[in-house]
Every structure is written in structure tokens, then in C-alpha cells.
Amino acid sequence: MPNIIAVIPARYASTRFPGKPLADILGKPMIRWVYENAMSSKLVNKVFVATDDERIFDIVKNFGGNAIITPKEIQTGTDRIAYAVRDLDADIIVNIQGDEPLISGEMIDSAIEPFLNENDIDISTLAVKINDVENLFNPNVVKVILNKDNFALYFSRSPIPFCRDAQTNEEWLKTGIHYKHIGIYVYRKDSLLKFVDLKRSKLEEAEKLEQLRALENGMKIKVVLIDKDTIGVDTPEDLEKVIRILKQNKLQNNG
Question: Which residue ranges does UniProt annotate as crossing the membrane (predicted)?
């Protein structure tokens, strides 16, 4: 079995939601929810938080987690992860967003599994079928289209593919070919280090989606389709949605 390391990038500074990783969710900081869910993966050997902030570092250490301090000038989560793992003994790196408290061990394992069976993959990720018009046309929901072998052809903030013959928005959904990208990435370690050394690409700059840099440079991204969606926390309103879901889950589990 390959040595699989999960890394959670976490910044304190955020334009829309400062201090987001430490936001309280039912008595625990969000970063702890993400960390513990990552620990529930059956395939991950070790979990780290990569952060530029001593407050996040201390919180993680206090609940018994592993944390690595990274320079504040690092711009992206992927660059932060690459910095953290350069000297770690690992074959496969899992990038788990620090604002995904609903991510599950099962989802993480689904994203990892292609690397256990296929050799021609640089990166893998997850997607879920879009079933509502709001998500399809929301630019904050990233869409992905796939080839016949479920490799990514393109990611976009626009609804893709364009359904020329659809008369209504609802008819777009009936085609069954629209997928929401879920932002977990799995890399071979050498693919991750190669990726962060590439120059930012034109498509990446246009869409503000760094995975397009990988596609423009010929890297292969396998997309695993799953049935369960998740919610990333970008705003305090998103946090309230997550808290409602977790409260409901707790009631169902106790009921």
C-alpha cells in the first residue's frame, strides 16, 4: 500500500470570513471537524494541518493533531500543502479544504481509490450530479465535464456543457450531464510538486480555478462521481447551514 498523507490548508485571514478555521460548530472549531473527518478515512495514514497562523497551530496541537507552520506569503492552499510535504515521506497527498466540515472519510477514500487501481493518473477529485437550477447557474458552484473514462475535460464557473436545444433551465437538468465539482484533490507527490512549479495559466486566470493549470499542461484528472453533496463554508451564512445539518444529523443518530 502507498503511504498516504492528508493535508488541510488553513489560513486565518479571509476577506469574507476572518478566522474561519476557528469558527465554532457545536462546541468545536471548524478545523477540528475537518481534521477528525479526515482521520476517519480508512486509507489515509496521517493527517496534518498546514497553517500560517499560530492560533490555528495551537488549537490543532491542543486537540492532539499534527500541524505545520508555513510562510504567510504563500498565496494558495495547494502551494501551502506542497511546502508542507516536500520533506515528508509520502507517495500520495490528499488536499482537504479546511472549510469543508461535512467532508466524510468515505468521500476521502472514494477520491483516493483510483490511485490504487490505475497508473496513468496525476490527480483525482470528486463530483456530484447537479439536480437544481440554482447550483447550475451559480458561479460560486464549480462545474466539471468528463470524457467517457471520467477524466476531466474542463472546469468552469459557467454551466457546462451549454444545452443549445433546451427551452427552459429545467430542461438543462434533464440531460443528466451537469456535475458539481467537490474541492478535494488527491495527487501523486511528484505530480503535486510538478504542478506548483508550473506558471499560472490563461484559463486559470480567466476562471480563477487553479485546476485548469493542470489540464492546460496535460495533466490527467480523474473524477469520481459520488451521490452525496457537501457544503464549503465561505460565509457566516454557510456556517449556519452546516450547523443546521449537523444538528439534524445528531438528532437522527440519537433518535
Answer: none
- For the chain, list the strands marked E by DSSP: 4-10, 24-25, 28-29, 46-51, 67-69, 92-96, 123-129, 143-146, 152-156, 179-188, 221-226
Query: What is the CATH number that goes with domain 4-237?
Result: 3.90.550.10
Radius of gyration over every alpha carbon of the chain, rounded to an integer in angstroms: 18
Over the stretch 152-176, which tens digit does the pLDDT of each residue have?
A: 999 999 999 999 999 999 999 988 8
CB 48 within 8 A of CB 67: yes
Q: How far apart are alpha carbons 48 and 84 in whole angstroms?
A: 9
pTM of the model: 0.93
Which residues, other chains included, contact 169 with Cβ-Cβ below 8 Å and sequence gap of 6+? 133, 136, 137
Angle, alpha carbons 96-201-19 (nearest 5°): 35
CA 173 remoteness from chain centre: 24
